[in-house]
Amino acid sequence: MKMFKAMMLSTALAVTAAPSVSFAQETVNMINPLPRSMVFYPLVVGEALGYFEANGVEVNLLPSDTSIPYVAFLQNGQADLAMLDPNETINALNAGANINTVYEVMQNAPEGVVVLSDGEFGAMGDLVGTTVGLVSDRDRAFLQAALDIAGHSIDDVDTVVLGENGPTLAAAIRGGNVSALVGSVNDWASLQAAGIGLTAITPDELKASPANTFAMDAAMVEEKREALEGFMRAWSMGMYASIVNPEAVEAIMRANVPEEWEDELAGKTLFDIVLTMNIGSTERYGDLQRDVWAEIQPRMLSSGAIEQTVDVDTFLNDAYIEAANDFDKAQVEADAAAWLAENM
Q1: Do the first three CATH levels of 26-108+210-343 and 111-201 match, i.e. the same topology?
Q2: CATH of domain 111-201
Q3: Sign of CA dihedral 311, 138, 146, 129
Q4: Which residues contact 61 (CB under 8 A, 6 or more apart)?
Q5: What pLDDT, in 10s, does the model give residues 189-224?
Q6: How many CB atoms lie within 10 A of CB 202?
C-alpha cells in the first residue's frame, strides 16, 4: 500500500494481553492504512463482540495519513504492529529493518487493474500505447508487474495519478481520458455503486498474494507474546464471525462505521467486496504462505518494486498462529447470533 526506502532505528514496543479469562486491559498500538473501516472488519467485529477485551487487549489505531513508512513506527517504538504489503515488507528488510511477519491479514490481492465492462479494452496487452490511471503513485509497481506478466513494460504506457476521489476516477475512465484504472477494491466500490460497470483484467498470477500482513519488531516476539497472541486470536474470531454469520457482521459494520453507509449502495458494494477479501485461504487463519512469498519475489524484482529477494525463513515467524486459531467456533457463532438478535 505504500513504498519506501529508508534506514530505521530499532527500539521497543509496548503491549500485553491474553486468552479468555479476565485480564487487565493493555493497549496494542497498531498502524494500518485506514481508520476503523469495513475494509478491515475483523477489528470492528472483534471489538463489538468483546473479543479484544476478553483477551486483555485494547486497540489503539495510530493515524495512518502519514508519508512516514509504517515500519518506522515499529522501529521507533510507537507501534506494536504495522500492517504492511509485500513491497513494504521486502523493502524494509532490504533496508536493514529487523522485522518479522507474524500474521497474514489478507491472502488475496485487493489491488487490481480494471477497465470499463463495455469498453474497447479487454486485456493487459490492449493498454499498450494508452494512458492508465493510478489511484496513487504506489500503484505503479502493481501495474508494472501486471504488464511484465503480459509480456510488456511500464514504458509501453503512460500513467497519471488521479487520487482517491470517486468522481475524479469516474470522470477519467468514463470520459476516455484513461484506458484503465489501477487501485484496490475499495476504490471501485463507489464507481460500481454509481452504475459504472468495471471488469478486472488483472493477471491471475497477481491474485494470490499476502496482500496485507501484520509485522512487528523481531526482537519483541517473545516479550510481547501474551499480548499479541490475544490480539491475533481476537482478530481471527472477528474474521470467523463473517464466515458463519455475514448478516450479523454487516449489521455490526452499519452500526459502528455509519459514515461508510451514507450512500447505501456504495456501502453494500464495498461490504460485499471486502467480505471475502478478509477470509483466509489457508487452513489456519493468518497462516504464513512461504511458497507464495517465495514465488512473488522474482516478479517484484523484475518490476523494480524491490532491489533484491529475501529468504522467507529469515522473516516469516508463525509464533502466534497456533494461539490465533485457539478459540471456540461455536461460541463465536452464538455471539454473532445473539448480537444480531439484540440489535436488530
Answers
A1: yes
A2: 3.40.190.10
A3: negative
A4: 30, 31, 32, 35, 36
A5: 778 877 899 999 999 888 778 989 999 999 999 999
A6: 18
